[in-house]
Write a structure and sequence with these properties.
Blueprint: E1 4-10, H1 14-25, E2 29-35, H2 39-47, E3 53-55, H3 58-61, E4 67-70, H4 74-84, E5 93-96, H5 102-110, E6 117-119, E7 121-123, E8 144-147, H6 155-167, E9 171-174, H7 177-205, H8 218-223, H9 231-240, H10 242-264, H11 268-286
Parallel strand pairs: 1-2, 1-4, 2-3, 4-5, 5-6, 8-9
Antiparallel strand pairs: 7-8
């Protein structure tokens, strides 16, 4: 059975905390050190049984661990790795859970790790909530986890990280990091930008204090649920995956303009066809 005796979780929030809870339940993590910036969150993590101990000192926290899981905003991942490298023991595995992979993989490969191993990872799971109190052990059950090895990735480390995610209930898929970033831009990053934009737009046009949101039904709440996501995390994701996201925003804008013209021209037939097409696709997604 795969066991990591001592593990450091850098960023004990929804993802890092849920992984700690699940891996502990499965017997994969034996002893867990939580590392973060705020003592309050770390203390809560220990109270909830998510970690065994904690520290705000990164370099102290990663000493003598077998595995480091970085579960912080994507813009912080490379600086954290660079800072911890001199303090890690040989053959320590580093992995992350970031939603953007290409830039991270390229920069890690330039570090030319010799006796340390990095495996890029992205569990496709989460909620709009953040913080350790939002963590729960079943978060990854039945969800996909994408690993993005490069030519420099150690195969033994890759297998161990793969087995870790399998042990917490995930279906593991290996994928090129650039393909990963394009797919995530389309199915995750763009929808978040659309949700943020719609909520802010509705707030902006409510200039006579009609309190538009008071009249919203379940549709708006369902559609904009992800607008409640962590702003630091999503700022970093948007900027790190900028090229893919800007391209898809431009293409989405063209589609939105097409809908505008169908409505403006009162094109009953094509408007019906577009809505029907969307309905059928949505039903297939749910299935």
């Amino acid at each position: 059975m795969l066991v990591f005796k001592k593990v450091a979780i850098v960023g004990v929030g929804l993802i890092g905390g849920s992984l700690a809870l699940s891996a502990r339940e499965k017997g994969v993590f034996h002893y867990i050190i939580g590392i973060g910036r705020t003592l309050r969150n770390l203390q809560k993590a220990k109270e909830l049984g998510v970690v065994d101990n904690y520290t705000v000192n990164l370099t102290e926290g990663v000493k003598n661990v077998d595995l480091v899981v970085i579960a912080t905003p994507v813009g912080t991942i490379i600086p954290l790795i660079e800072k911890m490298l001199p303090y890690l023991k040989e053959e320590t595995i580093i992995t992350d859970v970031g939603s953007v992979k290409g830039e991270i993989i390229r920069k890690v490969d330039k570090l030319h790790l010799s006796n340390l191993y990095f495996v890029g990872g992205h569990p496709i799971a989460g909620t709009e909530n953040s913080g350790v109190e939002a963590a729960f052990s079943d978060l990854f059950t039945g969800k996909k986890c994408i690993l993005t090895p490069s030519k420099q990735t150690n195969l033994s480390a890759l297998e161990k990280v793969k087995n870790l995610w399998i042990s917490v209930g995930s279906e593991v898929i290996t994928m090129d990091s650039e393909l990963h970033d394009w797919i995530m831009a389309a199915v995750s990053h763009l929808p978040h930008i659309v949700a943020f934009t719609l909520v802010n737009f509705l707030s902006d046009i409510d200039n006579s204090n009609k309190n538009l949101f008071k009249f919203s039904a379940g549709g708006l709440k369902d559609f904009t649920r992800i607008a409640g996501s962590d702003p630091i995390m999503w700022r970093d994701i948007a900027l790190m995956n900028k090229a893919n996201l800007v391209d898809l925003i431009d293409r989405y804008q063209k589609k939105l303009n097409y809908f505008r013209e169908l409505i403006n021209q009162e094109d009953f037939s094509n408007l019906f066809e577009e809505i029907q097409k969307s309905r059928n696709i949505r039903r297939n997604i749910i299935k």
